[in-house]
Amino acid sequence: EAQVTQNPRYLITVTGKKLTVTCSQNMNHEYMSWYRQDPGLGLRQIYYSMNVEVTDKGDVPEGYKVSRKEKRNFPLILESPSPNQTSLYFCASSLSLPSDPRDTQYFGPGTRLTVL
Amino acid sequence: LAKTTQPISMDSYEGQEVNITCSHNNIATNDYITWYQQFPSQGPRFIIQGYKTKVTNEVASLFIPADRKSSTLSLPRVSLSDTAVYYCLVGDKSARQLTFGSGTQLTVLP
What we know:
The structure holds two protein chains of two kinds.
Chain A: E1 4-7, E2 10-13, E3 19-25, E4 31-38, E5 42-51, E6 54-57, E7 65-66, E8 76-78, E9 87-94, E10 106-107, E11 111-115
Parallel strand pairs in A: 2-11
Antiparallel strand pairs in A: 1-3, 3-8, 4-5, 4-9, 5-6, 7-8, 9-10, 9-11
Chain B: E1 9-13, E2 18-23, E3 31-38, E4 45-50, E5 53-56, E6 61-64, E7 70-75, E8 84-92, E9 104-109
Parallel strand pairs in B: 1-9
Antiparallel strand pairs in B: 2-7, 3-4, 3-8, 5-6, 6-7, 8-9
């Protein structure tokens, strides 16, 4: 089954404790990205990756890191989480660029992160 | 990126047709219009995409007038399970990002 998986689905942590949220897709997609969703602010893009070893900042990259060592994986790293990073996080992937009419962007199930 | 404006919320009843209109006055020549659906605590799901006139798939129809400054998502005979937030996005096919607006909360009532 074609899908985007994220782990963990729920995480409660404390300020400053490094964490990684994994994202994996099984569709051989080149494009992957991370979003955060907050009440009243909607979905905002954190980082995206056009292909292996190619990453770029989205609209809200501060406090986050990503890596794309393999095509299928795109982990989101919070080196020193802070309470303002409490949010619902979504990973997404597509074969080509996200607005390409020949393609569809697939979203993962989400990771709800709470930083105390 | 063209800015989009949608109603914040809409209510409908089961079995009715629902039309959600999105305004995008600054749409560029190369921009496509895409609609996503999102249920609570789930990731957005692609519904439909179009460039001009009308597009129809098994889920919805998308109507785009000639000036392309607006678009209307039409959901035929909605059910309770269609209660969700619907997002209208406008972007060039070469755009490297998707920009989500506030979306429209559709509530289908029994």
